[in-house]
What does this fold into?
Amino acid sequence: MQTTSGLAGKAASGPPKSRKTQIVVVGGGAGGLGLAAKLGRTFGRKSFDIILVDRNPTHIWKPLLHEVAAGSLDANLDEVGYRGHAFRWRYRFFDGSLDGIDRHTRHIHIAPIHDETGREIIAGHRIRYDYLVLAVGSVSNDFGTPGAREHALFLDDRTQADRFRKMLLNQCLRVSRAMMADPGSDARVRVVIVGGGATGVELAAELFNAAQGLAYYGLEVFDDSRLSVTLVEAGPRILPALPERLSQAARDELEAIGVRVITGSKVTEVTPDGVMTAGGEFIPADLRVWASGVKGPDFLADIGGLETTPSNQLLVRETLQTTRDDRIFAIGDCARYVPSGSNRPIPPRAQAAHQMASTAFHNLKALIRGGPLKPFVYRDQGSLVSLSRYSTVGSLMGNLVGGRMAVEGRLARLIYISLYRLHILTIHGWIKGMALIALGHVNQVIRPRLKLH
It folds into this structure.
């Protein structure tokens, strides 16, 4: 096992006095990328070495993955390359997946990287840390449902979203061809989405938006009437994080555009041809998407002897330090923190990851400079769910008004878009961020409505 990062050091023998303080952030998502940029901008490279580790070469905001999957968003135009971003913000980037933590020598283990043929590109290696931040996000939880891993698609990262888009387009082409050969054909693109949370609901609406645009790009005989989408939710209603009135408004909107919404029905099996519900109904599907449940990645289970939950989340204290190691922080979806006086953990949202990154940044500076640490205080800014161009529903400032300040329609859509713009400003800074926002308006006019390749 090699040791990486120049001054990454000799673990057992005492380090030289000139050794840089090394802060390693694993995971370049909503929280990790912004944190790495802040650390790099604050500490520079003279006495510090800030390192970001991620298994992907680029970052895309996870709440946009449903648009990538439907083809409504060209991720090649909206993604952020880690290497270029690292150069600008004075940190270093390493490709790789976390494979283990040695807390005694303060090293993380990075798994080998292979190309498409299985040939090794980079051998497994170690990276030294003085302080470590785990921000590896979450994955969908299939709860061990038979056939889910084998026959369902997931939308946890860019690669999975791209795969779904390709399979969706191929199925649309098959149906279009069948209709050209036989105008009376009842061929359809059948999609079942398991999970009535934000991802499932937003994807269902975005699919109809995409289907309406296909006629402009060569599929003259295909339209959204040939799209059959079923949304299956085990709970009593979709979007349980929103007030019941808004949940019902979202359901009404989905059903109005043609989505079949099934609630109170658990999926018990996924097959190559569809899904089976606990009520005994078999729902045929060409594409099966699992968008239910949240858990930490499997490799987090008891990693480095740290305390984890059964759902692979790292338990953290109010300072966001892990319960068994003061030098290791966890933020975002992979962290589980239950505030004092509450019986519910911080929800897995992008806004929580951003807020946790700010607290972790303050506390890392405090540890290095000898200042007091501060507790993490979550400020619920509400929830918004976009139903593509049809509608947006949500509630704002949940902690302040108990989620009762509801917004709908154009105002909600404007606020939903602004959340992404705030993310852009966080990771790029005001000057470049404003330029990218302006460029985004231009791209909406000049670039194709759908990404089909």
